[in-house]
């Protein structure tokens, strides 16, 4: 077996899946398909698919605009319309994109929503974002409020509230908008498929414990979460993708290989790092390069858990659809309180035998960022490992200062080296 | 008491970052005190459990930030850093617990930071429904019952139905007095300068509720009987100041710039609901219903029908205002994300507005005064901006 073929297989599958999804979206009106706009964390993909509707995720649009270097213009467009410089740039990128024709990655306009499904999990901005969209679209909006784990645990009343909203509010609205009755058998089938893909994804995450690590759990990780966090969880294609990915990882483990970076395999792994915070999308490659050039591999990350902490045991359960969906939404990373987030990162640092950890603090994102400096200090105290702290943004190119970030990281890598020599 | 004496008393309380009143009250009553962050918590529960609810609104420009900045990046609002500063300096040590209402991700995450920093203190994140469906009512009642249970355990006092109803009655009295104060200011703004009203509101953050109500009534009596010069000011509604507060100097600058503020949203939790909470055999249900059904509209509360801003327009109309000043704390997501929706509603209704940001320790008072002054002048001259 040859690595390039292996690598291509999962990438090709993912690319094909995405292409088909955008084609379906472009044809949605013609095909009589209904479209639901909804957020990634705590998304109800299986439920949406059970009604044969198509999901669109505004954050994904924003991050793709970032990667395609369009976000800067979109953000400025929104600011011209009176949106503040100080708020989440995902929102402004989305509003700017909408005002400029809502063109998707295929160059065709995305269909307008038939429903705004506000899955309100782990981020306050989601609520304002959809309130803003509600002013733009003449369609119903429905809220799924997911209580926050203020004490670091899910109480029966939180579960009950979330599950009841699903049964009593969301299903009737979805039935009405789609014109279809909920097919429970179909929902169970989708959930069962999700669980199988989730098993494979967890296998991939845990492979980061190997030396050398066969994956990059952050830069590579954002590709790995693509299908399962978005429109595909629950469908056979998604299962096939994760099966293929797992095989690739197995191949790399068997051959003592590292992950593939844009410039080839990362062979020399000098440092193993755990990352907290979303990446920067506008300079994604440049950002990644700073690390692989220095032989730094990201063995685990929290951003890749915003759409589900499967590695801590959660699986969608086809036997108990509403409770399982509730549990899923409640358990997403940013819905956990700060002490629980610190615990998780500490565990990652230990379990993945990391040399240090990095906070990429995102200007836009209070949900992640507020409190990160304290998390950093707490982790240094608990683990004795060195932490780095850099600042950037998701999609606002004005807040990615390559020279600054590079300088900081170089000093950090030197510190890791010094620590190693001293050990 | 004269207006001057009342205002001085309030100003002393405002400046007392050591919470001397709270410490005295605790000593006098042999009881505990519970702090809470903006915007709103059901204070009746704390009161019925025999404790003093204490509203904490950061440190304004009165606290030197030594350690707080090391906890927050530059792009996060100011109130959490001054609150941390106060906590680390031991100024909040008289609070036996702290409640963090679900208004934004910053306060939400601060609840977790507090848990880590003060592990022996009671900390609770108060989650509110943002959905108005039957399941939400049940959820909120369960939250309130759980919180009350915690509070009872902390104080050792059972919040019986009778005690809860008594607290409800006292807070109803307080809301009534505040409504009178706001109505009087809207009718005769020269009799109730905003800086005085503001200090009275802030006093309500610490004073025991009946004492605060008595103070409000004294002020109302004195204000009605005192002639003060009527200025040629425009009438405005100030919006967006529900959490981090502007420094007192900015409040004064706003009203000295040619604007009568006839409605606002500072210290909003004290005026969160419109009507009174009924006394009943199930007071928890009554408190939950009041929250769910009959409150102000503000940026931290979900609007599901796309009519964000209608409430603001209504406020302008019912108060006879001529314009709106959007003033928000820098980096305040809720206020700043809400602003374009409010602005749109105002534009549709032909109501002029101006907008700026501030921080609780801002030194840019002159700039803000000039902006508000220009806004006032243009309305006076042309009726618009
Ligand atoms: S604040 Fe953070 S989590 Fe929320 S929408 Fe923005 S980027 Fe996403
Ligand atoms: S000022 Fe705004 S962002 Fe800051 S804590 Fe208050 S509500 Fe949250």
Question: Could you name the key traits of this structure?
Answer:
heterodimer, A: 423 residues, alpha/beta, Rossmann fold, 4-stranded parallel beta sheet, 17 helices, globular, disordered N terminus, B: 385 residues, 11% strand, binds iron/sulfur cluster
How would you describe this structure to a colleague?
Chain A has helices at residues 3-31, 45-50, 58-67, 71-80, 89-99, 125-134, 156-178, 184-206, 221-224, 226-229, 236-254, 284-292, 321-330, 338-351, 366-369, 372-383, 402-422, and strands at 35-38, 54-56, 115-120, 141-145, 260-261, 264-265, 271-276, 296-301, 356-362, 386-392. Chain A has a four-stranded parallel beta sheet, sandwiched between helices. In chain A, strands 8-7-9-10 form a four-stranded parallel beta sheet, sandwiched between helices. Chain A has a two-stranded antiparallel sheet with strand order 5-6. The longest helix of chain A is centred in the N-terminal third of the chain and has 29 residues, at 3-31. The model of chain A is unreliable at 1-6 (pLDDT under 50). Chain A has a domain at 9-185: Rossmann fold (3-Layer(aba) Sandwich), CATH 3.40.50. By secondary structure, chain A is an alpha/beta fold. The two termini of chain A are 40 Å apart. In chain A, strand 3, helix 6 and strand 4 (141-145) form a beta-alpha-beta unit. Chain B has a domain at 21-162: Rossmann fold (3-Layer(aba) Sandwich). Chain B is built from 14 helices and eight strands. Chain B is globular, with a radius of gyration of 20 Å. The model of chain B has no long low-confidence stretch (mean pLDDT 97). Chain B has 385 residues and is an alpha/beta fold. Chain B has a four-stranded parallel beta sheet, with helices on both faces. In chain B, helix 6 packs across helix 11. The chains are: A alpha/beta (423), B alpha/beta (385). Chains A and B meet through helix 6, strand 4, helix 7, helix 14 and helix 15 of A and helix 5, helix 6 and helix 13 of B.
């Amino acid at each position: 077996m040859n690595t390039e073929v292996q690598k291509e297989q999962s990438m090709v599958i993912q690319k094909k899946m995405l292409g088909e999804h955008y084609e379906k979206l472009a044809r949605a009106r013609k095909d009589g398909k209904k479209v639901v706009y909804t957020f990634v964390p705590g998304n109800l993909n299986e439920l949406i698919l059970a009604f044969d509707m198509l999901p669109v995720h505004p954050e994904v649009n924003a991050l793709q605009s970032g990667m395609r270097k369009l976000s800067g213009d979109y953000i400025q467009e929104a600011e011209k319309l009176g949106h503040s410089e100080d708020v989440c740039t995902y929102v402004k990128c989305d509003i700017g994109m909408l005002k400029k024709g809502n063109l998707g990655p295929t160059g065709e306009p995305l269909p307008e929503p038939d429903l705004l499904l506000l899955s309100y999990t782990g981020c306050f901005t989601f609520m304002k974002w959809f309130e803003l969209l509600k002013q733009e679209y003449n369609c119903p909006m429905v809220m799924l409020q997911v209580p926050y784990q203020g004490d670091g645990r899910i109480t029966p009343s939180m579960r009950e509230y979330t599950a009841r909203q699903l049964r009593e509010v969301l299903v009737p609205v979805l039935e009405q908008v789609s014109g279809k009755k909920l097919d429970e058998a179909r929902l169970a089938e989708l959930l069962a498929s999700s669980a199988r893909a989730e098993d494979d994804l967890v296998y991939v995450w845990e492979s980061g414990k190997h030396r050398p690590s066969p994956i990059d759990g952050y830069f590579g990780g954002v590709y790995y979460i693509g299908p399962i966090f978005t429109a595909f969880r629950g469908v056979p294609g998604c299962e096939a993708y994760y099966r293929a990915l797992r095989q690739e990882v197995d191949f790399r483990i068997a051959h003592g290989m590292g992950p593939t970076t844009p410039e080839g395999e990362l062979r020399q792994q000098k440092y193993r790092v755990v990352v907290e915070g979303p990446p920067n999308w506008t300079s994604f490659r440049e950002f990644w390069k700073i690390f692989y050039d220095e032989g730094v591999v990201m063995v685990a990350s929290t951003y890749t858990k915003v759409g589900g902490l499967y590695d801590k045991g959660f699986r969608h359960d086809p036997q108990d659809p509403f409770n399982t969906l509730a549990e899923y939404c409640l358990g997403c990373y940013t819905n956990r309180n700060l002490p629980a987030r610190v615990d998780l990162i500490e565990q990652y640092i230990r379990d993945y035998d990391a040399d240090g950890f990095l906070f990429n603090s995102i200007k836009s994102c209070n949900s992640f960022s507020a409190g990160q400096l304290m998390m950093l200090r707490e982790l240094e105290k608990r683990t004795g490992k060195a932490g780095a702290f850099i600042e950037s943004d998701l999609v606002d190119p004005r807040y990615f200062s390559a020279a600054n970030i590079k300088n900081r990281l170089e000093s950090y890598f030197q510190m890791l080296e010094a620590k190693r020599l001293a050990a | 008491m004269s207006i001057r004496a009342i205002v001085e008393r309030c100003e002393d309380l405002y400046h007392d970052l050591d919470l001397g009143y709270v410490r005295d009250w605790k000593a006098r009553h042999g009881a505990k005190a519970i702090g809470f962050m903006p915007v709103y918590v059901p204070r009746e529960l704390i009161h019925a459990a025999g404790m003093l609810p204490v509203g904490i609104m950061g440190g304004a420009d009165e606290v030197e930030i030594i350690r707080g900045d090391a906890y927050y990046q530059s792009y996060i609002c100011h109130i959490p850093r001054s609150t941390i500063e106060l906590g680390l300096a031991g100024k909040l040590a008289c609070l036996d617990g702290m409640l963090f209402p679900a208004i934004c991700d910053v306060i939400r995450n601060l609840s977790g930071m507090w848990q880590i920093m003060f592990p022996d203190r009671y900390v609770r994140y108060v989650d509110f429904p943002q959905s108005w469906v039957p399941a939400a009512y049940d959820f909120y009642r369960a939250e309130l019952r759980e919180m009350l249970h915690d509070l009872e355990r902390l104080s050792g006092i059972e919040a019986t139905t009778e005690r809860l109803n008594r607290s409800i009655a006292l807070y109803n009295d307080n809301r009534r007095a505040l409504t009178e104060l706001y109505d009087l200011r809207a009718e005769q703004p020269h009799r109730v300068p905003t800086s005085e009203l503001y200090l009275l509101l802030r006093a309500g953050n610490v004073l025991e509720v009946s004492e605060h109500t008595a103070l409000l009534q004294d002020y109302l009596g004195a204000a009605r009987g005192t002639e003060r010069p009527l200025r040629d000011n425009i009438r405005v509604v100030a919006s967006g100041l529900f959490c981090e507060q502007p420094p007192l100097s900015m409040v004064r600058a706003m009203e000295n710039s040619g604007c009568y503020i006839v409605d606002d949203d500072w210290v909003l939790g004290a005026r969160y609901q419109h009507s009174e909470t009924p006394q009943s055999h199930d007071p928890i249900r009554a408190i939950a219903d009041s929250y769910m059904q009959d409150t102000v509209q503000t940026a931290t509360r979900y609007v599901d029908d796309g009519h964000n801003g209608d409430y603001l327009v209504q406020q302008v109309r019912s108060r006879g205002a001529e314009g709106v000043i959007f003033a928000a704390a820098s980096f305040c997501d809720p206020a700043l994300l809400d602003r374009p929706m409010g602005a749109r509603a105002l534009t549709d209704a032909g109501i002029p507005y101006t907008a700026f940001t501030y921080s609780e320790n801002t030194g840019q008072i002159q700039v803000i005064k000039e902006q508000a002054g220009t806004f006032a002048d243009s309305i006076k001259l042309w009726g618009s901006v």
